[in-house]
Amino acid sequence: MRLGLYGGSFDPVHRGHLLVARAAMEELSLDRLIFIPAAQSPFKPGITPAPAAFRARLLRLALAGETRYEVSTTEIHRGGVSYSIDTVREFAARYPGAELHWLIGADHVATLPLWRESPALADLVRFVVIPRPGISPPELEKSFRLVPLRGWPLAVSSSEIRERAAAGLPLQHLVPEVVADVIRQEAPYRTAS
Asked: Distance of CA 47 to CAs 11, 13, 26, Å?
């Protein structure tokens, strides 16, 4: 079994995330791709994401009808800082013998040696490098098995979407319509004034 693991804050999920998922499924011939929203990113200690249940609900809405995708709340239920090695070990135990692929943005590749237990993590997964417009990932030692994803690089970020939502600007074409509707109705990114 070829399994893709796609971790991140997904705050909120956007079309770039969905295009990456589609590209990974096709280019790597994955059997399944699992979106794993983080409880708290170790690289964003001062940033509090939207409530975990809200981010997971948006992911489920965005992926409705996609039978080879799933949302795992394993990091949310574990709580605290989300470390990839803990999650990968859990999925390796759950799917013995599976070939694991961890999706990572090109802008984060340079930090891989700093990740918790990075040598053990490198033994367990292939890192699928998501292209970012204008960013070339650095060369790392061969133990970090890097697989480039051609995909469809899209210059959109969750932080830009949160800013637009906070300003009351439209989100069409940036997020699935069902996600835009929920953000519009519940206004989770609006600041009190």
From this structure: 11, 17, 33
76 alpha-carbon distance from chain centroid: 13
Examine residue 87 and state whether it is found in any structural domain, yes or no.
yes
The CATH code of the domain that includes 124 is 3.40.50.620
Domain span holding position 60: 2-186
Instruction: Return left, alpha or beta for 36; rule: phi > 0 is left, psi -120 to 50 is alpha, else beta.
Output: beta
Split into its structural domains, the chain has a count of: 1
Amino acid letter, 131: P
Q: Which residues contact 12 (CB under 8 A, 6 or more apart)?
A: 50, 55, 58, 158, 161, 162, 175, 179, 183
d(CA 153, CA 158): 14
pLDDT bin (cut points 50, 70, 90) of residue 122 is: very high
Residue 191 lies in a domain: no
In a domain, 123, yes or no: yes
Q: Is residue 124 part of a domain?
A: yes
- In 64-192 the beta strands, taken as DSSP E runs, fall at 69-71, 99-105, 125-130, 146-148
How big is the CA angle at 179 (ends 174 and 183), to the nearest 5 degrees?
A: 100
pLDDT digits (tens, 9 = 90+) for 137-180: 778 888 899 999 988 777 788 999 999 999 999 998 899 999 99
